[in-house]
Amino acid sequence: MRRTLMIGKSGCGKTTLALRLCNAPGAPHKTQTVELIGDIMDTPGEYLERKPFFKALTVTAMDCDVVLILLDCTDAQISIPPLIAGIFGRPVVGCVTKTDLADSERNLADAADNLRMAGCHPIFRVSAVTGEGIEELRTFLAQ
User: Fold this and answer.
1) pLDDT tens digit string along 110-128?
2) DSSP string, 100-118
3) 69 closest CA partner among 25, 32, 117
4) 4, CA 20 to 30 Å: which among 24, 52, 97, 124?
5) Which residues contact 39 (CB under 8 A, 6 or more apart)?
6) How are beta strands 4-8 and 40-42 bridged, if at all?
């Protein structure tokens, strides 16, 4: 798997997805600092939620091959700045999470649209609980 920087709002499922992608033991927990799970660098949600921490994300991205931005499809509050992908100097991929909890296809489409506006391509839909989209994302990250 390529070294991946995983970023997203608090509670969007970063740690749960990282554990699932890496087949790592352990339970999801509140990430307090950058943590390495297999080849995935998991970041605290605050790094994306608070603009002064963007520098930490850009510096951390230098050690990665790809950036994965996660967006919870059940969260109606948009927290990803448009075109943020441009600050990383790396390919930036989008990931709509918690697809098993989506109220409608509209929730999924809105989340994907927000990731596109952030500059992400391609965009995956996943559920770390049901396994939906996990293999596709894992295969992509292994390329």
Assistant:
1) 999 999 999 999 999 999 9
2) GG-SSHHHHHHHHHHHHHH
3) 117
4) 52
5) 1, 2, 3, 4, 22, 141
6) parallel
